């Protein structure tokens, strides 16, 4: 069995209300002897579901979310001016 701890950041944008945010997740990744991968996500010390599965907007609760590479939300806000 192989275990690894990684951090990944994602940017999110709600396609309903336009809210944008970025979060960095601590991820514990395990690979068992049959090459099955298990990833356990933590945000702010709490275990959370994978942000890639069914993210929800913290502003309006919509599930119409675009997931982008880190830093995209800040870039989008600069172009709004």
Characterise the protein shown here.
This is C2H2-type domain-containing protein. The protein is mainly β. It has one domain. Helix content is 11%, strand content 48%. It is built from one helix and five strands. A five-stranded antiparallel sheet has the order 4-3-2-1-5, with no helix packed on it. β1 and β2 form a beta hairpin. The protein is elongated, with a radius of gyration of 15 Å. The N and C termini lie far apart (50 Å).
Question: What is this structure's SSE topology?
Answer:
Blueprint: E1 2-14, E2 20-31, E3 37-43, E4 46-48, E5 65-68, H1 72-80
Antiparallel strand pairs: 1-2, 1-5, 2-3, 3-4
- How large is the share of residues in beta strands? over 45%
Q: What is the multimeric organization of the chains shown?
A: single chain
Spans with pLDDT under 50 lasting ≥5 residues?
A: 77-81
Structural class: mainly beta
- Taking all Cα atoms into account, the compactness measure Rg is 15 Å
The dominant shape is elongated
Helical run tally? 1
Distance between the termini: 50 Å
Q: What's the helical proportion of residues?
A: 10-25%
Number of strands: 5
Number of domains: 1
Quick check: average pLDDT? Answer: 88
SSE series: EEEEEH
Q: Output the strand order for the largest sheet.
A: 4-3-2-1-5
